[in-house]
Request: fold
Amino acid sequence: MNQAARIRPSLWHLLWASPFIVIGASLFVYTLFHGLAHLTDSLTQVVVPGATELHLQPAVYTVFLEQESTVNGKIYSTTQSVAGLACRASSVQTGSSIGMRQPSMSTTYSVNGRSGRSVLEFPIQQEGRYRFACDYGESTTGPQVVVAVGTGVGDAIFVTVAGGIAELFGGLGAGAIVILIVVIRRERAKKRLKQPQA
Reply:
């Protein structure tokens, strides 16, 4: 038996790293595609100028202007200026207005034929029904566009991407550990073979 054949473990044991790498990469792809595909599920679309009633929980809600969108089978593409478009929210029960403000962070998405960017946000302190409306005012006209209202989109993007990366590196790390163990054990075996026999 030659010396190479006596070195254990054999190089074939490196293949044990493959399942970990493949699983990590597969989970990364699945998490990214599945998470991003459902990113806009929690958003309520509103064709404006127009209004709707929303049942909202305490949270900070973001208003997205969708450049590309489909509502009830109709395709909307925002290529014209929407300067002058103003949005408002108010409590249905009390009639009190909810203050609109610039979003605390810029968030964009482009999934399932929809693309949008954050333009406003507003805080809700109490659960209830709220009227949400957008228009150009009495002295201004503009195109019909789609806005989407919801919460947690930015967090969902971060969690999806971070989770996918963690799964990828977890698989790669596990595979690297297997390779490292095989290499170390082979090097030890080589050293033992080089030692003079008693």
